[in-house]
TrEMBL record:
Cofactor: [4Fe-4S] cluster
Superkingdom of the source species: Bacteria
Catalytic activity: Hydrolyzes free adenine bases from 7,8-dihydro-8-oxoguanine:adenine mismatched double-stranded DNA, leaving an apurinic site
UniProt xrefs under InterPro entries: A/G_AdeGlyc_MutY, DNA_glycosylase, HhH-GPD_domain, HhH_base_excis_C, MIG/MutY, MutY_C, NUDIX_hydrolase-like_dom_sf
Major enzyme class: hydrolase
Family designation: Belongs to the Nth/MutY family.
EC number annotated for this UniProt entry: 3.2.2.31
Domain HhH-GPD: 35-186
GO terms of molecular function: 4 iron, 4 sulfur cluster binding; 8-oxo-7,8-dihydroguanine DNA N-glycosylase activity; adenine/guanine mispair binding; metal ion binding; oxidized purine DNA binding; purine-specific mismatch base pair DNA N-glycosylase activity
Cofactor info, note text: Binds 1 [4Fe-4S] cluster.
GO biological process: base-excision repair; mismatch repair
Protein name: Adenine DNA glycosylase
Pfam families: HhH-GPD, NUDIX_4
Amino acid sequence: MIFSKTLNHWYSNNKRDLPWRQTKDPYRIWLSEIILQQTQVAQGLPYYSKFVHEFPSVFHLAQAEESDVLKLWQGLGYYSRARNLHTTAKYIASELNGVFPTIYKDLLKLKGIGDYTASAIASICFNKVEAVVDGNVYRVLSRYFGIDTPINLSKGAKEFKELAQELIDKKNPADFNQAIMEFGATQCRPQSPDCNICPFNKGCIAFNENKIGELPVKIKSAKAKKKYFNFLVFIDKDAKTILEKRVGKGIWQNLYQFPLIETAKSLEFEDFKLAVKKHSLLKEVSFELSLYNEDVIIHKLSHQHLYTKFWIVKVGQSLPNSIPINKIRTYAVPILIGNFIEHFNFN
């Protein structure tokens, strides 16, 4: 088909030199695809390099402690990806003798692997004719064919998957899949694509009907909830602080944080001080309280916005279950906590 020939020709002349394009190793392809979910290449590349260096095979990753995997992942967000990565590595190493499934339906059974990742591994590593559909592919196809079906509805997902499957180069599915993703990432960009030099501009409906900014269509999700987080940064007389492990289900599961007081709204100093006095660590203990950030830090997640304050709590005695401040950077923490640790001058 002309579409795939044009796309492959563009790819041969414009593809970026990326390390996961130099291999067919399913472990490395899988690793790169998981890292690049919700992550731009520029941000994900150093993480990929760190993981390959630290865990050169699925067996190395399987043998690692989860805390070490989460620490290496720190800053990428969506930490369930890292937990699923580790779980699947252990399964492949122990149950499959380190051998990845070669077909789509078996890859799909692995934890953390959905349609997109299964299609990518099957096509790139094993030359299976399985079309990938990600944000870049949605954008290319919706613009070129003028499709306004919302991409975040099941109807849209099915329509675009079927179209991509029709278009894929049956003889070279690996290059086709990488080409269409690359084309969406670097040429048919979300904002200000350079349509004048696009090899598809003559047949592109969005370009010819001036609908580039309208496609793809996505139904707006519910408004993000506001939450008010107050982290207590304890500093005791022994230059120790306290980190707590989050054990409940959630995006920060098994990561560490400073003791947290969540409030219904942002509290002024005196009101919050009353709340702090009720904390189990401070009952009948004298302390000095100060607010680190006068301006609230707004940490935006996909479904909620965290309005965050860091409160410094200096205590003139030893605290139970505390850790030396100079060891604090060895713990896996959310990026919100990590940024504070990097900027605060612990003395």
